[in-house]
Amino acid sequence: MHMILRSAHAADIPAVLDFWRAAAEDGHRPADSAQAVAALIARDPEALILAVDEGVLVGTVIAGWDGWRCHLYRLAVAPAYRGQGIARSLVEAAEDRLRRLGGIRVDAMVLDDNSTAHPAWRALGYQPQAQWSRWVKPLPVQ
Ligand SMILES: CC(C)(COP(=O)(O)OP(=O)(O)OC[C@H]1O[C@@H](n2cnc3c(N)ncnc32)[C@H](O)[C@@H]1OP(=O)(O)O)[C@@H](O)C(=O)NCCC(=O)NCCS
C-alpha cells in the first residue's frame, strides 16, 4: 500500500459520492449531493481530507472549523482497507489541521447504534459526552 493523504478537489466529487455510498455510515441524514460537496470545498478547500492508495480513494474525513469549534464528519474507510490504521491517519491529519487553526477540542457525531465506530473512536481518544444531546431543525427550503 502506498497511501497519501490530500485535500479533495472539485474533480474528486463524483468519486467521493460513490465512495460514501459504499463505505460511509448512512443513517439519519439528508442525502449527499455534488452541490453540497462542491460548496464545502469552495468554502473551505482543506476541510475534506482523502486517503488515496495508488489513485484509489480508500478513506475520507471532513475536518470542519467554523472559527469557533472543530467538528469531524464522514470518517469512512473502504471495507477492504479497514484495520490498517487508515482512520487513525485521517483523524490525526484532521486534528493537526484543527490545531493549526486554533482549535482546542474536537467532536464527532457518532450514532448511538454504530457499534463498529464506537471502538474506533475510543481508540482514537474520543469519549461520548453524556451531558449533551443533539437538537436539530431542518431549514425549510425557500
Ligand atoms: C470506523 C472506521 C472508519 C475505522 O476505520 P479503520 O481504518 O478500520 O480504523 P483504523 O485501522 O485506523 O483503527 C483505528 C483504531 O481503532 C481501532 N478499531 C477500528 N475499528 C475497530 C473495530 N471494529 N473494533 C475494535 N477496534 C477498532 C483500531 O484497533 C485502532 O486502534 P489502535 O490504533 O489503538 O490499534 C471504519 O470501520 C468505517 O469506515 N466504518 C464505516 C463508516 C463509519 O461508521 N464511520 C464512522 C462514522 S461516526
UniProtKB/TrEMBL annotation:
<dbReference type="InterPro" id="IPR000182">
    <property type="entry name" value="GNAT_dom"/>
</dbReference>
<keyword id="KW-0012">Acyltransferase</keyword>
<feature type="domain" description="N-acetyltransferase">
    <location>
        <begin position="3"/>
        <end position="142"/>
    </location>
</feature>
<keyword id="KW-0808">Transferase</keyword>
<dbReference type="InterPro" id="IPR050832">
    <property type="entry name" value="Bact_Acetyltransf"/>
</dbReference>
<dbReference type="Pfam" id="PF00583">
    <property type="entry name" value="Acetyltransf_1"/>
</dbReference>
<dbReference type="InterPro" id="IPR016181">
    <property type="entry name" value="Acyl_CoA_acyltransferase"/>
</dbReference>
<protein>
    <submittedName>
        <fullName>N-acetyltransferase</fullName>
    </submittedName>
</protein>
